[in-house]
Structure formats: structure tokens, C-alpha cells
């Protein structure tokens, strides 16, 4: 569905309607509530509170059916990590209205920054816009500026030599579905529909203040996230966007042998917002231990202690201390 429509389909979601969104970083009453259309406070970019948590909703039968491999969630995970945003949940659901409605409401309530991927093309099974509109009691309206950009920047497929933007046809009706967006009449248009690139007609629509509807086509999904990044930076805990910090340790010790130490370490660093991870590397002589958090100075101060605790050393690339010497592995096999 996505590959054939990549040059047109895959609308992003709009900016921020003023629904009663209560996420972990809910707006302060002075900036997040809009008492009337005349006193909406204008802020550069979408109006929002601090972004600390994120959720990702992948929508598409083709993903669940194995026809398409989802790469967007992995890209979004790296994107969040680079910004210092904690990605708390990734879900893959079907092109089913009830499932989309339930998931959109729940994620909007639980996380500060939510993206959806897929289901915004011109075909009958692209129902993301209409489902998310219904989830928050909004209407679908034809967004004329988006329609104008579609006419300017998209070209009819070669199988449509007689297509006309001015003559009614089933093809035109299908294309217009991609410009029919969830609309809150109480929120300024520029906060509901954002075009992150000058030469791209696909809009980013934000619904309920934190649901961002993105296309499923990976190149569009990635480009639009990157284009939206400048608007996100002022809303991060670290506006400079330094991101999360990961320390990597290499250890020759079995996970079971260092499990007790790692349990104690996790309890110690947890209150500082640092998470401890342990990962076996099958077929290798060394396993990996990680510390992930935002407090770089504190984490760096733990380097000697952790290296001693796991009887290993800090590395900067997993496997950088691997060797071609498989003596230990051979000994295990001979035993």
C-alpha cells in the first residue's frame, strides 16, 4: 500500500488542537488552556509543555501480515534517544478503527509526544485520519492549503495520463482524502497543520496537542521528523538536544555471575535516572553492560567502579575489544 503511493500518500498529522490532553508533561494552566479563540496565546511552533516521554503507534495490516517490515519505530527510537526523550512504548496495530481510537486516546493520555505511522493514503483501508478524528470528537475537513501544495508538488502516476485536478473523478476523490484532516475549530490552523519542508506537500498534523500523524513511507517519515526537530528542541528538558547518554562496558564474565552486582548497581543509580542493562553476545567471549541516563557527570564518575564490578572495561563500540582468538570457545567445545 505504501510503496506504490510514496510520492503522494503518507500525510503527517497536524499540530496541536486544544483538547484536554493530560500527559506527564501537561501544560501549565496559563499556557495550555485556551478559553476562547480570541485569546489563544501564540508561541513559535506548536503550543506544548515539556517533552519527556514518547510513544510510537505503527498502523498497518501489511506490517502485521509480514508484507512490510517496520523500520520507522527503530528510527523513532534513535530519534528520541538523540533528543534525550524517553520512548516508553511502541505498538503495532491493524487498520481497524476501534483499535486506532483506543490506542490513540491511551497514548495521548500517557505520553508527551506521540507519533503514528501509516494509514493516511488514498485507499479504502487508509483510515488513520478518520479514526483519530473520531477518537477526539473532531471533524474531517478538506485543508485547502494542503490541497494547493499537493497540486503544486505531486505529479499524477504514469498510469493516469488523463488525470486532471479540475475535473471530478474517482482518482481525484481518492487524492482529496489525503487532505481531509482532523480539525478542531477552536485551534489556529497553523497549530494544527505544519509543513516541515518547503518542497513537500505532505503536512504534519497534530491532534489533541500531542498526537502527530506521520506517513508510513520511511523516507517521508524520517524527513518529516527531522524537519520537525527545530520545533521540538525548545520543549526538551535539555533544549540543546544533547540527548541520552550511554556508557558501554565489556566483560568476560557470565551474566549470571555479575547479576547480583548489577542488581545492587541498578538500585543505587536508579534514583539518579540511570538504567542498567546487561546483554549477552552469543558466540563471543565478552558480554555487554550498559548505563543509560542524562546525568553525564554522575555517570562518568561511576566508570572505575562499574569496570571493577563487572571485571571488565569501558568501551565505546560494542565488540571493539573482540579478537580473532577463539581459544576459549574451542576449549569449551573440547570439554
Automatic annotation (TrEMBL):
Residues 55-235 form the MoaB/Mog domain. Coiled coil: none annotated. It comes from the Eukaryota. One of its GO terms (biological process) is flavin-containing compound metabolic process. Residues 318-327 have a biased composition (Acidic residues). GO terms for molecular function: FAD diphosphatase activity. InterPro entries: FLAD1_M, MoaB/Mog-like_dom_sf, MoaB/Mog_dom. Gene3D superfamilies: MoaB/Mog-like domain. Residues 315-335 are annotated as: Disordered. This is MoaB/Mog domain-containing protein.
Amino acid at each position: 500500500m505504501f510503496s506504490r503511493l510514496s510520492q503522494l500518500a503518507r500525510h503527517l498529522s497536524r499540530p496541536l488542537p486544544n483538547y484536554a490532553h493530560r500527559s506527564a508533561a501537561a501544560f501549565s494552566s496559563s499556557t495550555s488552556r485556551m478559553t476562547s479563540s480570541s485569546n489563544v496565546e501564540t508561541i513559535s511552533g506548536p503550543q506544548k509543555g515539556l517533552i519527556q516521554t514518547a510513544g510510537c503507534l505503527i498502523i498497518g495490516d501489511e506490517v502485521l501480515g509480514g508484507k512490510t517490515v517496520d523500520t520507522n519505530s527503530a528510527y523513532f527510537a534513535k530519534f528520541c534517544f538523540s533528543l534525550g526523550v524517553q520512548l516508553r512504548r511502541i505498538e503495532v496495530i491493524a487498520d481497524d478503527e476501534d483499535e486506532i481510537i483506543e490506542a490513540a486516546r491511551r497514548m495521548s493520555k500517557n505520553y508527551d509526544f506521540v507519533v503514528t505511522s501509516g494509514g493516511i493514503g488514498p485507499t479504502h483501508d487508509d483510515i488513520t485520519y478518520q479514526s483519530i478524528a473520531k477518537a477526539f470528537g473532531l471533524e474531517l475537513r478538506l485543508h485547502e492549503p494542503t490541497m494547493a501544495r499537493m497540486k503544486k508538488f505531486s505529479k499524477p502516476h504514469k498510469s493516469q495520463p488523463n488525470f486532471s485536478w479540475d475535473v471530478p473523478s474517482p482518482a481525484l476523490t481518492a487524492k482529496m482524502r489525503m487532505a481531509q484532516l482532523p480539525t478542531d475549530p477552536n485551534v489556529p490552523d497553523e497549530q494544527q497543520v505544519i509543513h516541515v519542508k518547503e518542497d513537500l506537500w505532505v503536512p504534519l498534523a497534530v491532534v489533541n496537542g500531542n498526537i502527530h500523524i506521520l506517513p508510513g513511507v520511511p523516507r517521508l517519515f524520517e524527513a518529516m521528523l527531522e524537519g520537525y526537530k527545530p520545533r521540538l528542541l525548545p520543549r526538551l528538558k535539555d533544549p540543546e538536544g544533547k540527548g541520552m547518554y550511554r556508557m558501554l562496558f565489556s566483560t568476560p564474565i557470565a551474566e549470571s555471575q555479575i547479576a547480583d552486582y548489577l542488581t545492587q548497581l541498578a538500585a543505587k543509580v536508579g534514583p539518579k535516572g540511570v538504567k542498567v542493562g546487561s546483554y549477552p553476545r552469543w558466540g563471543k567471549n565478552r558480554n555487554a553492560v550498559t548505563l543509560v541516563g542524562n546525568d553525564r557527570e554522575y555517570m562518568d564518575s561511576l566508570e572505575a567502579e562499574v569496570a571493577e564490578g563487572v571485571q571488565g572495561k569501558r568501551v565505546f563500540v560494542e565488540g571493539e575489544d573482540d579478537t580473532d582468538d577463539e581459544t576459549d570457545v574451542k576449549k569449551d567445545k573440547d570439554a
